User: Fold these one by one.
Assistant:
Number 1:
Amino acid sequence: MLKRLACATVCVLLGVLFLATCGAPSYLTHFKATADGLTIALEVTASPKINTSEQFFVTLTDAQGQPVEGADVYLDLTMPAMPMGTNRPIAEAQGQGRYLASSAYTMTGEWSITVIAEVAKVEHRALFKLTVSE
Ligand SMILES: [Cu+2]
């Protein structure tokens, strides 16, 4: 238990590269954008595969860097090149300003991931791009 805790601490301190060493999933891509004073960070698998359940970790922080709780968060996954149908997973609150959604990419190529976060009735949007291979 202690050893695991120590490992987790090392991961946090030294960065995501070490997550692989600890046997945790490697969320290697960290996106960050500020939309109207709200910072939206997104962590996703760096090299996702198609038709595989993927997790999307969203972290919301305010202008003072404090976690934002109680937001309504969902994602909108689209492909810039073509209509792909609706793919809008809702994120569940995990505490400490973290929200978790899961979905799958249904095709290879470039995807747009829009994170929509509604805080105190104000909608914030951040757009990120990711290429999915087979
Ligand atoms: Cu497509």
Number 2:
Amino acid sequence: MGDGSSLFEKIFFVGGKGGVGKTTISTSLALSKSKVGKTILISTDPAHSLSDLIQSSSSDEIVNISENLDLWELNAQVEYDKFRDKHQEDFRLILDTSTYLDETDINQFLALAIPGIDEIMGFKSLVDLVKTGNYEYFIVDTAPTGHALRLLFIPEILDQWIKQIAQLRWKYRQVQKSFKGQYDPDSGDDMLLDLKKAVLKMRSILKDSNQSQFVIVSKAESMVFHETLDLKRELEENEISINSLVINNVMKESDSEFCNQVRAYQAPWIEKLASAFAEQNIIQVPQFPIPIKGLKQLTQVAEQLDLIN
Ligand SMILES: Nc1ncnc2c1ncn2[C@@H]1O[C@H](COP(=O)(O)OP(=O)(O)OP(=O)(O)O)[C@@H](O)[C@H]1O
Ligand SMILES: [Mg+2]
């Protein structure tokens, strides 16, 4: 599908410290967006916590959850295996046209040359999905903080790797040219070009706030506050735009002494978060009495996220 007919509006990456409620908020945001347009919720968490949360069975494939909402528990290893199997022959062509490389050699080469190749392929699969133009909104439930930041460097890592391989190719081209007078591009070149295009697309998506933004999930407490500011700073240093801050587990007013103590503890942290995120939407999500599960409860949270756009 060409760009003209693409539905694509935006990717929201949902990030934050471990356990703050990223999966809960991503799912709720996806429910909220699915009222506006075709939405896909994507997770790379191998624990399959998403399917558990919405009480559906887990799968590596895209599954439909509700009207306008699909779920994809992206398994980076599976995506990597698919990519490698598809391009086995191309790698052979590129690495050596005279020596026979077996599957183990190619696997070893890939693992050594690109650390985190599975993650990279996971991100490439996301970019490929964006290119299909089948969805308006992509909500990505990222793994805890450090992991979310790693994905920002994926285009650079992949680009360097493509350059290295292209150099190998260049020598081969020169030899071909001097023997045959010309060089005919083969499927190895097609693969490199395809990867190069994916890198460019990844970069343009990440750097363009019209195409991708972060939603940071936090809590009104000391430890989470500091990690939240670290994440904010790193995103800003990488020119990644932050759409909103969600302060999760905010205690409501009540008659109980216990709840009021919690509220009194939270108040200054809410203020500090509010002043640090003065330029973003700030959304407070209340503390529920029991863990949030199932579409019905998630819809209650979703209503509070409607202003994220
Ligand atoms: N507002 C809330 N009120 C009550 N329970 C909540 C709330 N938000 C999240 N939870 C519960 O807290 C737990 C952790 O939430 P969640 O799994 O969404 O966090 P996470 O940031 O995705 O964790 P991880 O970093 O491990 O992926 C879950 O049991 C969830 O139901
Ligand atoms: Mg999670």
